[in-house]
Amino acid sequence: MTKKNNIESAADVAKAMMNFYGKAFMAPQVAVSESIKLGQEMVKSATGASTVGPMKGDKRWRDPVWLTNPAYRVMMQSYLTWARGIEAWVDGLALDDRDKLRAKLLTGLVTDTLAPTNTLLGNPTAMKTTLEYGGQNLAKGLKQFIGDMQNNNGLPSMVDKSKFTVGENLAMSEGKVVYREEHLELLQYLPKTDTVYKTPIFIVPPQINKFYVWDLAPGRSVIEYLTTLGHQVFIVSWRNPTSKESDWGLNSYVEALDRASEVACEISKSKSLNVIGACSGGITAAMLLALWSARGDKARANTFTCLVAILEVEGGKNTTMGLFANLETLELARAFSGRKGVLEGKDLERTFAWLRPNDLIWAYWVNNYLIGNDPPAFDILYWNADTTNLPAALHGDLIELLSRGGLQGDKGWEIDGHRLNLKDVTCDTFIVGGETDHITPWDGCYLSHHAFGGKSEFILSQAGHIQSLINPPGNPRAKFMTNDGEHSNPEEFLEGAQQNKGSWWPHWMHWMNERSGAQIKAPKSFGSKKYEPMEDAPGTYVHAKAKV
């Protein structure tokens, strides 16, 4: 990604915002109309006639005082009416979808920031806590605020990092590094059964995070789950790049995966693999399978499980507007990755936090600073805060891939002279989307159901991005939807869908087991004569900090 491209990208966003302001000034009647509605609704609220209330899932207004106290009720309803009026104002402007999305990103940040719940006087829970503890909560909150400004990239801490250590109480499954190169380490895990399925599993994590989200605490580890059910498991651990690796693009990552897959096949003595990819790792894995097909090596892919990943984009349609929100935010950061060679992990963390500021910033602002609670000790939040860098070339390639529509036929990507086409991938596929996923909206993930050339099954986990992936059996609130009938779009899927209680993992394992071949004697050691085992899992690359 060149400096010229970075400047042009930032200029495109700036041009779009100028277009927004121009349209706004040319249509003052839209603002006047929304202002009149706001005034009318405030009068209704003051007289107790307003029916305005928070949207389902908006946790800011859970305190019953918002409904029982007239002053607080008026404050809440006035704010909600104003915020929705701003959104309606933007919707009423004559802007195309992309420019309208950019405007909503900007105005949404403003309205979320100005919510009364972010202030002491405007937050009844914080006020009650302050009165109960005589202000000690605010003293503790101030101390935590200063610490976060100094040590947490200026963001409220989402997790108590002191409670976790990778290799001690996270990433504990028994395994070994069996292959290492510049891009990655390949880890092999010891099966927990006497026999295993012949076809091994090959997992491709996202490049944007560290691999051990697949191996969290016991009972919440995908790797533990697979090895206890008789599967051979190999997983990639990506290296955390620095500015020296700024030229690592999508092609180099796919080629590194190709080499690692050969190692997994050699060690397991299997000609094929059950490939699993998630998020950006799902994109990279899908490109790998398409490359195998383009080279005439379709047999290497036995099955493909694609989790919370968007491979194709229907430009301009609402099904992928959430994805474009991420795309536009990343474009604003593109200049940083071009100048430094990488988009630093701390910048990525900040970028994605501001995509959901109420949940990922302001909720912790209230918890840590106004109420004075300690940040929670939660393994997923620790993993999320254990940031990695993104090379400028990979950053630019991902934006370019999504901008052109993803991996669609003749619009697709080219590697080593081979044009990639997902229709050439004929193995069975298992596609998972998350109902409340804000990073890869599920209806965008659904498009992959029809993208490949083989049989495909789509399931909808009723959770968010990471919660859809880490969904072990035993959670009484877990649900997922299936549809065994014919469906060609997300709406048709929902119309005929059946809701299932519990985790989707057992459903997936039934699908996987049917396609993984005969049972053979489980290996008792790691590696092979050609690829001797090295360090214990979780390896060495996972410990690298996000330094430029």
Characterization of this structure:
The chain is of the alpha/beta class and 548 residues long. It folds into two domains: 3-131, no CATH class; 175-321 and 417-543, Alpha/Beta hydrolase fold, catalytic domain (Rossmann fold, 3-Layer(aba) Sandwich). Helices cover 44% and strands 13% of the residues. It has 19 helices and 16 strands. The protein has helices spanning 3-26, 28-46, 65-68, 70-91, 97-113, 124-133, 136-151, 222-228, 250-268, 280-294, 321-340, 345-353, 357-370, 379-385, 392-403, 442-446, 465-469, 490-495, 505-513, and strands spanning 175-180, 184-189, 195-197, 201-204, 233-238, 273-278, 301-307, 342-343, 390-391, 414-415, 418-419, 428-434, 456-461, 479-482, 498-501, 519-521. The strands form four sheets. A ten-stranded mixed beta sheet has the order 1-2-5-4-6-7-12-13-14-15, with helices on both faces. A two-stranded antiparallel sheet has the order 3-16. Helix 5 crosses helix 11 (321-340). The protein starts with a helix and ends in a 27-residue tail after the last strand. Mean pLDDT is 87; it is low at 1-10 and 315-325.
